[in-house]
Amino acid sequence: MTDTPNVAQAKGSDFSPDPAFAKTAHVDAARYKSLYEASINDPDAFWGEQGKRLSWIKPFTKVKNVNFDLGSVSIKWFEDGVLNVSANCIDRHLETRGDQTAIIWEPDSPEEDAKHITYKELHRNTCKMANILESMGVRKGDRVILYLPMIPEAAYAMLACARIGAIHSIVFAGFSPDALGARINGCDAKVVVTADYAPRGGRQTPLKSNADAALLHCKDSVKCLVVKRTGGQTTWTSRDYDYNEMALEADDYCAPAEMNAEDPLFILYTSGSTGQPKGVVHTSGGYLAYAAMTHELVFDYHEGDVFWCTADVGWVTGHSYIVYGPLANGATTIMFEGVPTYPDAGRFWAVCEKHKVNQFYTAPTAIRALMAAGDDPVNAYDLSDLKVLGTVGEPINPEAWNWYYDVVGKGKCPIVDTWWQTETGGHLLTPLPGATKLKPGSAQQPFFGIEPVILDPQSGVEIHSNPAEGVLCLADSWPGQMRTVWGDHDRFEKTYFSDYKGYYFTGDGCRRDADGDYWITGRVDDVINVSGHRMGTAEVESALVAHAKVAEAAVVGYPHDIKGQGIYAYVTLMNGETPSEELRKELEVWVRTEIGPIAKPDLIQWAPGLPKTRSGKIMRRILRKIAEDDFGSLGDTSTLAEPAVVDDLIENRMNRTNA
Question: Which CATH number fits domain 531-651: 3.60.21.10, 3.30.300.30, 1.10.569.10, 3.40.50.1820?
Fold first, then answer.
């Protein structure tokens, strides 16, 4: 199999760390090597030191207590320590940086003023929210659902729950009433915090109406706290509480609760292979230490920097790298309510210029969409404050990586292509900007304490040689690892520990090259077996997107009479390009030339859009069903950013056996 990423590097670019950057970086190549070895050889000593990043009410004496054996899986870090996450993110900064901006809130409309919220203001507002929740009957261990736009109150609510020991569970503001109701019932929530409307991309989602519809299927005792974001018309019932009114009267001090390091901090529901969402549980001490450490070192965050992660707080990236990691580090973090293309394709770059952003972290899907709009929207703005660029969510194809590096970063900003999952709490494989010679499309090296192994998918035997290809597992734990599935520890063990005994199974395929760098090949179910050859969908997608007329591509397998599986490609063209039979043939030849005859797509469908979640993740499960001509059981598509694209894809499917 040809390494398509090397095609992108054929121009001879050297992506070694800039010596001047490495000199001031937290971690250079030598320090990475020594720290990594220390983290693997003596995890208790290493993580015992890193645990001191946090302020403890009662310091821990035990560092690591982990068992990966099927039937008795147990993960505990700093288990006898006592702390409060909210106090670590706010109170401990008040004396030294109380007047520093903690959160810059950038609203959906550029016509609306941004807000700069200091640590003192964050403290006051979080305490008010905590007191309001307590007045509504929320106690330690109770669950609170947050169904909010990207507004400061979302951060206040997260930190307020942490302050009083309640467990928050955020539901995307784009999710349907059914999805919301399932999560309220799934964790038996006591309160739902929502807003009247969620402005996004110039449109408004009626969150309160959605919450009302969801609550029809929940216990009558569930209360609803409503933030007036727009002041638009909405219906009020006896279970509703007016946050804006209550905040005027609420006391602005609330003492932080004493929490054990292993007390749950939040539940975040993520898609399961069975279609039934899993409630991923993260706890207080280990998660926060890991989020803070990865935020500081992976992005090389320094005092005074302005950090922007463009994710939604409804996604784990927003939890770890908008709220908990940055605030634990006393950083200034940006919270953006809008979308990359509203009011135009220059919005991201306008915000970077306006707030003098130093580290910028976004998803490959956003980069590809902005790349399709051309260079002019980027070049219209001053991006000279950028120091580090990051990507998250899926492997980035080399074509988009190079555009990001050259056009956005002007060839001066290292790109940290981070691989991790909802389940991992923070980055597991990533370059470090002062230490790593970058390879476009590669997740590269393990973070400290992470022991990746590549196993043979059939035998489960570890492959030690390089290069290697197989399934990616982790041989040992790290503090940010999820502890269980909410209410279903058996499912936790079965999902992550039963396929390959003694290992945590990531569900991803992986290739390790001759240099020992890691390349994620996609979910194991995103690997196509064509005539006995394993073909990673990411590789074919990268080849397609490398074509000048292609903006985005998604590749899945479908049943093929001769090959077993055929390659089905959904292709979105650049703005202004017209689909044609000639272009279809041109792309087939292109992929054949880029990778080899085995990779030539059997079917190419023109796709005006791809089905994506609000976080930008392509829902390949839906694409597979359509490619298989089996779209009767797609499940709930209302949680997609644009559900209508599914109908178009069904209507224009290529593998049509049914009328």
Answer: 3.30.300.30
